[in-house]
Amino acid sequence: MDVMQLLSWACIVFTVGMFSTGLTDLKKMRETKSADNIQFLPFLFTCLNNLGWLYYGLLKKDKTIVFVNVIGALLQILYIIAYLHYTTQRRLVTSQTVAAGTVLACGWFYFTTFLPEGDSQLSQLGLTCSVITVSMYLSPLTDLVQIVRSRDVQRLSFPLSVATFFTSTSWVLYGLQLHDQYIWVPNTPGIFTSLIRLYLFWRFAAVNQSSPAYRSM
Length: 217
Description:
The chain is mainly α and 217 residues long. The chain has helices at 3-20, 22-32, 41-60, 63-86, 90-113, 119-138, 141-150, 158-178, 181-204. Helix 3 (41-60) runs parallel beside helix 5 and helix 8 packs antiparallel against helix 9 (181-204). The two termini are 34 Å apart.
């Protein structure tokens, strides 16, 4: 097994593992028959991100990117359906889902109609997916500030932090091997934000000895 095959398998295993952390939320919703205290937008944005990268993988003819994001999109769709079933805010969640679907359809129409096939289409799609991925990795920073102030890490997920670190690292190395900046650049922030979260667990775990050191996803 050469380096590329090893990195490909690492990306698949770690990324699918990261997407699977949502199964804990799914189990919680089924047991409690409620979606209370579970955030919906991360499922929706991750699904959009998966579908964008799936299209990128198809254009690039990269089986690793395609496979990972097919699995990711299917899991996110499962989480979204479950959330719609159990939430008491069905109208709001439905409108958010429809809005996301509209944005996705408009994006697909733009990339397939107004951009010529080839490097230009691939580059603009890669840039768009990169921006979305970076924003997803950086979005928890506001929560991290609050955690530092409160010295309470219960709102963080330790398994997700570990999974994100290994996932980001594997994709950075994979992107570097392919010389694809649209893969390694957007995943670099994921390494740093994961390390920050792991440091916070180490720093403030003792403060929360009377309660669990992390919350489950």
